[in-house]
Amino acid sequence: MPGLDGVASPIMTHIIDGKAIAQEIRAGIRREIETLKAAGHRPPGLTVVLVGDNPASEVYVRNKEKAAKEAGFTGGETRLPAATSEAELLARIAVLNSDAAVDGILVQLPLPSHISEPRVIEAIHPDKDVDGFHPMNMGRLVAGLPAPAPCTPLGVMEMLRRLPCDLEGKELVVLGRSNIVGKPMALLALHKKAGANATVTVCHSATSRLAEVTRRADVIVAAIGRARFLKADMVKPGAVVIDVGINRQEDGKLCGDVDYEPVSKIASAITPVPGGVGPMTIAMLLKNTLDCYRRRTGA
Ligand code: GUN
Fold it and tell me: Does the annotation count 108 as an active-site position?
């Protein structure tokens, strides 16, 4: 990029420390729970349900569990064998729905292929849907009404807010249209409210001239699940780049959806993988659970 004297000047890239931001949020939630308990209220409860033995899901669930426990939530993990029938899982969810001490229910996805994910998501009571995946909560998100929103895009919004990167009037390009990340990310950024109000484009596998679109972006959120997909020549110098991808490389190491080394040389801010968006997802899960608890109990 030309500097004031016309000579190319390097961009000082801010590496966004998602781990540190998440720790701060988690510490704040822990303090809130301590205050609630000191006032005689019960602590909030979160139950994480894992069906089967997907190794990646096991790691995610363990991390969620650990974070919840550290923050002072009650509850725990419900582990069910891979052969669990859909009816058995729905019955378990019904029990959790009617358990007054459970404020949040999270069923880790993906589920074994013989179980319908939409049916399971719809079975979770919307007031306990800490993932924000229930169609009722999705609808409320579309309408801009208060509701738990999916944790990963919420975490991205919180990171941008703290950067600070005000999305108002900015071009935001989301790569990926999943229900978990891409679509809710676009909606959160589109809302006419402080920190949001962006001009949003959602790209996907059928988008033509993709690099032309991404090069327009002031902020890019990459969530397509393809290792190192976003190359430096697809990014406008000075853009903010948020990498939601977690891909396992052949050497066993993790990498994101962004070609990190070259892109980090031209972005003004970028998230690393690991240590970027991942920890924020867990922090937002705790926040959603505390919000559900407050809405349910009025505490
Ligand atoms: N699998 C991958 N991400 C998520 C998530 O945010 N929530 C649940 N329940 N499952 C997932």
Answer: yes
249 noted as active-site residue: no
Q: In angstroms, rounded to a whole number, what is the distance separating the alpha carbons of residues 222 and 203?
A: 10
Q: Is 131 a catalytic residue?
A: yes
Give CA–CA dist 270/217, Å, rounded: 14
- What confidence tier does 3 reach under pLDDT thresholds 50, 70, 90? very low
Architecture per CATH, domain 40-127, reads as 3-Layer(aba) Sandwich (3.40)
* pTM assigned to the model: 0.95
User: Is there an atom of ligand 1 within 6 Å of 289 CB?
Assistant: no
Q: What is the pLDDT of residues 13-72, one digit of tens each?
A: 999 999 999 999 999 999 999 999 999 999 999 999 999 999 999 999 999 999 999 999
Where do we find the tokens 């895009």?
153
- CA-to-CA distance for 201 and 229, rounded, in angstroms? 18
Q: DSSP per residue over 159-227, as a string?
A: HHHHTT---TT-EEEEE---TTTHHHHHHHHHSSSTT---EEEEE-TT-SSHHHHHHH-SEEEE-S--T
105 CB under 6 A from ligand 1? Answer: no
pLDDT for position 6: 47
151-186 pLDDT tens trace: 999 999 999 999 999 999 999 999 999 999 999 999
Q: Which of 46, 131, 183, 281 to mutate to test the pocket of ligand 1 (most atoms within 8 A of CB)?
A: 131
Domain 150-278 CATH superfamily: NAD(P)-binding Rossmann-like Domain (3.40.50.720)
**Annotated active-site residue in 108, 183, 259, 291:** 108
pLDDT computed for residue 77 by the predictor: 85
CATH 3.40.50.720 residue ranges for the chain: 150-278
Q: How far is the CA of 209 from the centre of ligand 1 (A)?
A: 30
Catalytic residue among 103, 127, 131, 243: 131
